[in-house]
Amino acid sequence: MDGICTLANDRVYDQLIALLNSIEAIQGAEMPVCVYPYDNNTEQIAAEIARRPNVQLYDNRDSMQQWDRFVGNIWDAHPTACEHWQKIGSDKYHRVGTHRRYCAFDGPFDRFVYMDADTLLMSPLEQVFAQLNQSDWVVYDFQYQDLSHVYDIKSPKLTKLFTTKQLQTEIFCSGFYASKKDIFNAQMREWLLENLQQGEAEVLYDMAPDQTILNYMVMRSGISNYNFAQKLLESESTGCCVTSTHFQAKNHVLYDKGNRLTYIHYIGLSSKLFSRLCAGENIDFPYRDIFLHYRYLHEPDKQPKFNTKLKAYNAPPSLATRILKKLGKLV
Hints:
Blueprint (H helix, E strand, L loop, with lengths): L1 E7 L4 H14 L6 E5 L5 H8 L4 E3 L3 H16 L4 H7 L23 E5 L3 E3 L4 H6 L5 E3 L18 H4 L2 H6 L6 E5 L5 H12 L11 H13 L3 E3 H4 L16 E3 L2 E4 L2 E2 L2 E3 L5 H8 L4 E2 L3 H8 L15 E2 L6 H8 L5
Parallel strand pairs: 1-2, 1-4, 2-3, 6-8, 13-14
Antiparallel strand pairs: 4-7, 5-12, 6-7, 9-10, 10-11
């Protein structure tokens, strides 16, 4: 069975609804979806999921604990990660809930597409699922152009583990990918962990914890991988990130120079922005109308009616706010 997966908790409630609605509108209401819980803060999203017969909230505690242990063991083997995280005030493991997406490897779907909660589906996924007939790992992004957010580029082990060509072409973003159940079975995980514990963990980039481990697992295991961004003709490929401001909207779908996007990733925008927007604050950010359309697809009457001045999401704080912060009046 094919399905779509995502990762969420109540902090991304509005974004999750928008994503689920986009899947329903673009892929169809019959497409099954599994939501992996980032943590135990899931009361709101659980109520929303219960209203959707095609969506389930993953509740296999053994699976989640298994992956939690796997990830903990990996970061315990890293020479500096835990010390670094303590210095920046993080928990023992930084953003550990992001690794819960790995549960898809023993989740309900034989083949799946994973989408971050801050994405929206823009095209049907038949082409992506079809590519899984030839490849074990399928992505569509341009992360390969920036190695520094995937691995620790200062590590001398990096170029010993992977060829220059691999490091230039096989890097991917963990916000959207397609794969298969059991591709990383217990035996494979044990082998990967042993290698990491023997010193290879130092290549991992500790500020993108789930992304760096996924890249390592895919590249070190040698499974077949495919990136549409590299395989499609330049005239056919599209971007996917909110940082690309040239996309054009038509009928609530985004296009890149005439080509329909597969998905839009609101990467780099805080979940608080979306919560504030849905609470009625008139915050502007790229492709805001697309988000609002899908967020309120089934309840358009609840969409906020803005009666205050539009404010850019990245606008500098006002003079009054800066003064209050300096005086310690604002947190």
